[in-house]
Amino acid sequence: MFELLGWSLLAGIVNALAGGGLFFTLPALLALGIPSTSAVATASVASWPGYASAYWSIRQQLRNGPWLALTLIGLLGGGLGALALVQFNANHFNYLVPWLLLAVSLLYARQLLSKAGFEGPLVLRRRGWPLLLGGSFYGGFFGGGLGVLLMAITGQLRMGSNLQQHAMKLYLSMLASGATILVYSLSGLVYWQGGVVLALGYLVGGKVGAKVITKINPQLLAWLIVIFGVVLSGFYFAKFYW
Asked: What is the 3-state secondary structure (H, E, C) of the chain?
């Protein structure tokens, strides 16, 4: 259990900075012999305190944001994603994960290299609804690299400043993760003994990661997210294809 605590602490920090904490906690849960769907459900439920603590630390970034729309998108997308995982075998979805992570990482890199930039006014335009809803659905269904995906989407939409995009990423992740709690709990997929330990590590790690965000150069942090996403996709290619 001490190993789970250590991995979840690191996962909480990573989730606050870039996303991809599942990269650390999922292998730890699988190593205990927990089935993949149960491991995904447990990690998703346990990650909620980390997202909540990280978001709370930078909540002021969204004080004038589209609260109602983001709340609806996060809860609806996360809930539908969780319902989908309960119905289907997550192992089949695993083979799509590295492709998706690589695609969103390269998409984000392209946006960073664009002369138009990746920042703009904090406004949710019509085309942002399906994109953010899809990201939240992914967060409820699997969630690996969710932060990279959401940062790529908000960057493409040029929705807010870099820090505001981080706040939106954490807010939507918190809502999507929160929506899974009810669905996965009722389904019986959650491994509660390990989940409580993970939740503690995520909580502390989220607070630490949120403090670090405000001290890192936005451009540097953005490129670190791209690098992390590419490395994460490589890990999943190796894990699921070889």
From this structure: CHHHHHHHHHHHHHHHHCCCCHHHHHHHHHHCCCCHHHHHHHHHHHCHHHHHHHHHHCHHHHCCCCHHHHHHHHHHHHHHHHHHHHHCCHHHHHCCHHHHHHHHHHHHHHHHHCCCCCCCCCCCCCCHHHHHHHHHHHHHHCCCCHHHHHHHHHHHCCCCCHHHHHHHHHHHHHHHHHHHHHHHHHHCCCCHHHHHHHHHHHHHHHHHHHHHHCCCCHHHHHHHHHHHHHHHHHHHHHHHHC
